[in-house]
Amino acid sequence: MTTVMLLLFLLLCTTNSATAAAVESAAGGDHRLAPGNNGGCGGFKRMFSFGDSITDAAEGLGLPFLTPFLRAKTPEDFRQGANFAVAGATALSQDFFKKMGLDLTIIPPFSLDVQLEWFKSVLNSLGSTDQERKEIMSKSLFLMGEVGGNDYNHPFFQNRSFTNEIKPLVPKVIAKIENAIKVLIDLGAKTIVVPGNFPIGCVPRYLTMFQSKSSLQDYDEFGCIKWLNDFSVYHNRALKRMLHQIHHDSTVTILYGDYYNTALEITHHPAAYGFKKETALVACCGDGGPYNSNSLFGCGGPSTNLCTNPSTHISWDGLHLTEAAYKFVAHHMLHGPYAHQPSISPK
């Protein structure tokens, strides 16, 4: 499917380090991203991405598909970038979740710190001197995530306490993202994109999981669970505050990707964008139930129900968006009201 890399292509082909004054941080004011005049993609020669299954590669970047780190055989495989993202990966370590007492069956040992170490080994293989490595860093695009979603998904899906165990993870997750950004800047990175989290209260898997535990007062007028969306906002606000405060000079551009509001727009007004109102919260590929998302691994299982027209659905498998939904996100991050740098609430 067309995924978040297409969004990044559209977003970042409009800016480079020369426009840092206009978009220098996630809280730099209400700056729209205007189309660039150089006809290129910001001068980027390669791309490096970190995170989980939300991170993927799209043809629109104008580069070959990124090589997954674990599949590469020689440094030549990384000449135009690498994808360090792993499905299910977290910001926090697997050992952290082990100490929480979580079942580690679907929590891979490839946290953000591990992915950073992978990147360092790739960088050293591509450049033999400090100058060569700095040159590589300055002409590369870095995508930091989406990071954090799985740090919350795993304990949510294992029925852990939201108040006592899940919400307190937010500052720990943000600290890991902050450290990763600082590492990249210290190594010479000039352009880093840091996406926020999606509105999980509108995600079919979460809607199914909390259906029996929710009252009418828990839902908004669009059918999303309010307190879950409030949690996504809580994470995103903390992320933006960190991006605003992180130290960097004027040659470094840090962009915040507002996935939350772009996804919320099509959820609130599906018919206006070619989606069906009656399936706005229903997975295209799933295993039954009111949201077609009865279990975490319903898509592809023996009881899979597959919709006939995925382009009318927002959710593909109960956790990820469809191609049509990702296209909307990409277009409106560039042209629409989500192409500016959002302000930060003091709370």
From TrEMBL:
Keywords: Glycoprotein, Hydrolase, Signal. It comes from Oryza barthii. Belongs to the 'GDSL' lipolytic enzyme family. Gene3D superfamilies: SGNH hydrolase. This is Esterase. It holds the Pfam family Lipase_GDSL. Residues 1-20 form the signal peptide. The keyword Transport does not apply. GO terms for molecular function: hydrolase activity, acting on ester bonds. It comes from the Eukaryota. SUPFAM superfamilies: SGNH hydrolase.
